[in-house]
Amino acid sequence: MHVELVRVDNAFHFEALGTSGVAQHMDAATDIGGHNAGARPMEMLLMGLAGCSAIDVVLILQKQKQVIDDFRMKVDGLREKDATPSPFKKIHITYLLKGQLDEVKVKRAIDLSMDKYCSATAQFRPSTDITYSFEIQA
User: Fold this and answer.
1) Ordered structural domains, the chain, with CATH
2) DSSP codes of every residue in the chain
3) What percentage of the chain reaches a pLDDT higher than 70?
4) Quick one: pLDDT at residue 138?
């Protein structure tokens, strides 16, 4: 895996390009001179965690012949307060699914992702308390 980062402006706007060839933009908060032209790097970490687990869960549910009409996630991260660096201390993930879904299969898919398959979760686990819940919406 390889990533390149290029500064876009004279402040804190960067464009990152990975092996996939898809550009992602990052920027700093306006209160330190950023222009809000991209996600914050720590937001991208949470996005990566969500994406990693989402791919696992969808793959597992597809293999179980579950019908997913809608799939969303909310990820809330709590960082160390008044610390530098300020790593995530706690993360809570809420999976929101809609479709013809068996609750037991959904729970099992999420558990497998979080406990066995998701590499992003493994990256966070040694130092971060990760909890999760799910809702199957009508």
Assistant:
1) 3-32 (no CATH), 41-137 (3.30.300.20)
2) --EEEEE-SSSS-EEEEETT--EEEE---GGGT----SB-HHHHHHHHHHHHHHHHHHHHHHHTT-EEEEEEEEEEEEEPTT-SS--EEEEEEEEEEEEE--HHHHHHHHHHIIIII-HHHHHHTTT-EEEEEEEEE-
3) 100
4) 76
